[in-house]
Amino acid sequence: MSFVAVRSRHGPWIVGVGGNAPIDYGPETIVFDTRTHQVIPGPKLLSTKFRPILLPAGEKIYALTRDPAIKGEINFVPWFEVLDLSQARVVSGRLVDCKWEQLPRPPCFPWELSPRHYIFPPVVWVRSFAAVSSCILVSTDEQKGTHMFNLETEQWAKLDDKDLPFTGGAAPHGPLFLGFSTAAKKITAYKITVCAADSPSPSITAGCPSLSIVEFPMVDEAGEEVVSNGKFVSLGNHGFCSFRCRTDDLVLGTLEHTRELVTMRTYGTEDLSQDHLKSIRHVVISNQLEQVYSVRDSLRGLSWPSLVDVISL
């Protein structure tokens, strides 16, 4: 299951989506109301998705399969769905007046396969993604380039011949986005702009806008680049947190993983105004704070990793 924060007309919600068994698994959408602390079951997905990519846009949640399957019961079509919470109500402890709806498949996903490719299907994995303005950007490991889904027209188009420069999702951070740089293997800030195209290449969809991405390295006050791992969450304009976890089981190799240490490092960032960024060409980390938490459950085994996946996704 994946999690995303959504601001609905009912207040701030944390929404969990996904499952790993299509039969008798229970609700594949779960809402946690942060004000009432109520857990609210919601509608089932049209197809069971294991840890889908979740991208909120207003009161809508877009769910995209990470690794599309062309047969079987998990991660099968439809690969892309949307849940509109604008009219949703909570009645008798359940979420009603909303449902998941199918959206067009990404053109970079396998389709119209030959019999041989159907028997031995290509393995496709969504390598990077971001929600920018009124569009969703996606790059896969199978097909070079970046594809765009227009949230207004609900149509896909190829936007650029290059892949997105980060691995995983890019999180909004003020006017920038934070992502784990594929090349530098560090958290990097990006200014991502989708604008009118001048002269697109023949492989780009006609009439499609162009993509501009400017990188801003993260450095401390001494000018040294900040090294951090790929699990992180933005804290808005003022900073972000990165996470690292390791097992804390008393006996290594036991069947049940019940204890885990989660290290959270908080970074404060300085001025993110456009003029300031243009003059220094990097983002300055003003302070750092490290905290370590112990997570344990004596009744149930923990997934690996546990808390980090919930927070960072």
Give an overview of the whole structure.
The protein is built from three helices and 23 strands. By secondary structure, it is mainly β. The chain has three domains: 1-106, no CATH class; 125-216; 227-313, no CATH class. Strands 14-13-12-11-15-16-17-18 form an eight-stranded mixed sheet, with no helix packed on it. Strand 11 and strand 12 form a beta hairpin.
List keywords for this structure.
5-stranded mixed beta sheet, single chain, 6% helix, 3 domains, 313 residues, 8-stranded mixed beta sheet, DUF1668_ORYSA, mainly beta
Secondary structure layout:
Blueprint lengths: L1 E7 L2 E7 L11 E5 L4 E4 L11 E5 L2 E5 L15 E5 L4 E3 L2 E3 L3 E3 L12 H5 L6 E7 L2 E6 L5 E5 L4 E6 L5 E8 L2 E6 L5 E9 L14 E7 L1 E3 L11 E3 L4 E9 L11 E11 L4 H7 L2 E14 L10 H6 L1
Parallel strand pairs: 11-15, 19-23
Antiparallel strand pairs: 1-2, 2-3, 3-4, 5-6, 6-7, 7-10, 8-9, 11-12, 12-13, 13-14, 15-16, 16-17, 17-18, 20-21, 21-22, 22-23
Percentage of residues assigned to helices: under 10%
Low-confidence stretches: 305-313
SSE arrangement, N to C: EEEEEEEEEEHEEEEEEEEEEEEHEH
Biggest sheet, open or closed, and with what strands and sense? 8 strands, mixed
Multimeric organization: single chain
Order of strands across the biggest sheet?
14-13-12-11-15-16-17-18
N/C terminus separation: 10 Å
Radius of gyration: 21 Å
Class by SSE composition: mainly beta
- How many domains? The number is 3
Q: Roughly what is the average pLDDT, rounded to an integer?
A: 85
Taken from the alpha-carbon principal axes, the silhouette is: globular
Total of helices: 3
Number of strands: 23
- Taken as a percent bin, the fraction of beta residues is over 45%
